[in-house]
Amino acid sequence: MGRFQGLVGIVLILGIAYLCSNNRKKINFRLVFSGMALQVVIALLVFKVPPVTLFFQWLGRGMGKIEQFAHQGASFVYGGIGVFTPDGKVDNYGTAASGFVFAFNVTATIVLVCALVAIFYHFGVMQRVVAVIARAMNWVMRVSGAEALSNVASAFVGQVEAQVMIRPYLKGMTNSELLASMSGSLACIAGGILVVYANMGAQAGMDLAPKLITASLMAAPGALVIAKIVFPETEVSQTMGRVKLEVKSNYTNVIDAISHGAGDGFKIAMNVIAMLIGFLAVIALLNYVLLWIGHRFNPGFDLSLNYIFGNLFYPMAWSMGVPQQDVHSVATLLGEKLTINEFVAFRDLTTHIQPVVTERGLLIVSIAICGFANFSSVGMQIGGIGEIAPERKADLAKLGLKALLCGTLASYLSATIAGILL
């Protein structure tokens, strides 16, 4: 039954994209089907081929190690602060290996991962890995080099950093390419944030790491599939058929790379914390108002955002193949991720505020909410890319909501395919 529901979901997702297309006659169906086939291959490799499965599980354990290393740095800075351990006792954060404070642990993890990414970028490792994968995707899907590079880079670095890698091409990119690049950045998730989510799951006894890595990899071709349905290419791309990436590092040496990476990571972490404080406070206010409104009509009617999301996204959650007992929780999480942000959704998933009890449900929702596609990210992306390519600000503003739609549908498509194959 779940597989049948998933097929309904694929038809629904592609149907929404088709209805939103600005030129249905120009849709390249070869690109669409080859991109979906690439998503299927990635999912099959990860979930059905034992050596690949073991490799991704190894990567997941590596993410756990990264969090432990980050804690070593944080323990020096925050040592002396008392924290609760899992057994309910209070211990020194600097010496309690199992102590977890969201602001401390998340900040440290993002800072470390950004520093590591900067080191890899300085030595050219990141650029070469991205270029190799982009060439493969360019060959399979026949997309342009610029959009292939941008989408693959988005699976490793942040949404604005991915555009920095194609800075020379931004000025001359077609609007279809620009939408594809924006959509990929919203559908994928940065390495530092991915590690944070994996460790949030580990704290709750969930093995999310392989699922999240798979989600980010599947999102790259998935975003191209949806974007090329919504905005088919009708112009000639300056990078069609070629993938060329500048390998030169902007850092003086490895110390400079670590310094800049750590500094950028701290800015990202502070932005995450500020957004969470702001959004959660506003949610509390809205829920208070909604509860008051609900009680005016019926004293037993507890109206809330979760109630609204659970009903609004119920059809989509069901069609994606989520088992019946998890549909309402998954629908609520989909709504939180789109309208608030993915951090809130992952918090509610891993703390069981919205419990997901089946393996299929956990797989689908983990992939579906693993991305930057939300309203606040659209604003950040328009501002960030606009600074890199000021001459494209008007185009970015026009394409912002389309990119949000494409990024969201791409994540849903990846989740649905993975659910069918489980």
UniProtKB/TrEMBL annotation:
It is found in: Cell membrane. GO terms for molecular function: nucleoside transmembrane transporter activity; symporter activity. Residues 212-419 form the Concentrative nucleoside transporter C-terminal domain. Residues 8-80 form the Concentrative nucleoside transporter N-terminal domain. Keywords: Cell membrane, Membrane, Transmembrane, Transmembrane helix. It is a multi-pass membrane protein. GO terms for cellular component: plasma membrane. The chain crosses the membrane at residues 6-22, 29-47, 100-124, 178-200, 212-231, 268-291, 362-382, 403-421. Residues 104-202 form the Nucleoside transporter/FeoB GTPase Gate domain. PANTHER family: SODIUM/NUCLEOSIDE COTRANSPORTER (PTHR10590), SOLUTE CARRIER FAMILY 28 MEMBER 3 (PTHR10590:SF4). Belongs to the concentrative nucleoside transporter (CNT) (TC 2.A.41) family. This is NupC/NupG family nucleoside CNT transporter. The lineage of its organism: Bacteria, Pseudomonadati, Bacteroidota, Chitinophagia, Chitinophagales.
